[in-house]
Amino acid sequence: MSTADDLLDVVVVGAGFAGLYALHKFREQGLSVRVFEAAPDVGGTWYFNRYPGARCDVESVDYSYSFSDELQQEWTWSEKYAAQSEILDYLNWVADKLDLRRGITFNTRVAAGVLDETTLRWSVTTEDGQSVTARFVVMATGALSAAITPAFDGLATFGGEIFHTAHWPHQGVDFTGKRVAVIGTGSSGIQSIPIFAEQAEHLYVFQRTPNYSIPAGNTALTAEQVAEVKATYSERRRISMRSGGGSPYVGTTKLTFAVSPEERHDAFEKRWQLGGVLYSKTFPDQLTNADANDEARQFWEQKIRAVIDDPQVADLLIPDDHPIGSKRICTDSNYFQTFNRPNVTLISVRRTPIASVDETGINTSTAHVDLDAIVFATGFDALTGSLGKIDIVGRGGERLRDDWAEGPRSYLGLANDGFPNLFVITGPGAPAVLANMVLHAESHVDWIADAIGYLDDRGYAGIEATPDAVENWLAELNRRAATTLFPRANSWYLGANVPGKPRVFMLFIGGFGVYNDICAEVAAAGYQGFDLIKGP
Known about the structure:
The protein is of the alpha/beta class. It contains 15 helices and 20 strands.
């Protein structure tokens, strides 16, 4: 533990789920901690993403902190899938209950972190000129926090309103009587389009890539359901931490073709009625066997065609370029049915690309669309985007963004060679977005806290991943991905949504429970794959 007044033990960047828990955990450990947050308040992704329909696709009772049974018992979720506003209310409640705000500097964006190789301390500076020194830096910057806006020719000349779903006005937007374009049909587009369609005089949906989406089946939680969850939280969390994705659901062990066609249909139907992203795990071989995947895809396609009136519109909305589940399946409320409305027009930018924007609207290769507003639902520079915006300088003046120029490198998704005492939470090289991000953040923070305690107890000043451990971990990520259908999709898991970004599969695909075991084994072996460094 540091004693100098001007030296912190830990700087945490970000005050979302991960940053808030990191502040609490390190403080409980007796460490001095300061959190920097670019937003005016807590929440991270859930502070900024306020677009209509914003909702989590992990069940609310699971997408919540598990470290405190008091928190679990006191907070009551209202819906199966919580809306953004309720999640933000929850995070504000936790921040107040645990007295976390006094440890956070808001409205402050971190500009740089520079290592002093002699002392192994980090100098962290902010865009407004603040500077602090810390023994450890923890990047809780979020996987989905660096929004992308395509650079269309003429966009600056548009005379109407321009919005991005990731930076939605807090006062809301009313599209009544307006001609509105939504560009993008990923999760944020799929969630918001049905709501925009109810308001707008006419809604034009510009789709580059159709997506698989499953009805959320969202419902209010009954008092009985809430009571059952609270009574069984301990076991629910135990199963979640051992599971593939951080949720308390254990699928069948039978392979797709080990059951009869009738049983197969019934299994898909049951999973469909439950709703949500877990449809991709109806059978354990759905993402490793192309024929098994096609069975799931055909069932999905029949469901979707049944609710779309125009077969040609259905053809455009049904993906044909990637296996189902190899991109994260979206969850929706009447998304596909929205295209039956007379005031909704679907435009495929694969067939008629956007050529430019002018003062009155969008020009495609074949037509001009008159508009009053444009909404970008174009997603994020995922996993690496937020880190790339910070000037992180390690040994020998090496910048993290240069070290990752050919794709992100890490050991366990937690640390990098050349950057001692710098940790990343739920970033590239970890399961990240393939798991429940709240439990994932908790497991990462706990691991980091244990590592700092181990170092302090033994008089070490630093911990640094070895080059061999990083290279071996990258090989492990690729080896595991190659056994699945995931690499067949041009997904943001590979960085394919960002022009010029290297195509590297960025996630550990072996499952959340398996990953937790690996991290625990590394720690139990005295932090195998890390150099532990004595002080100067």
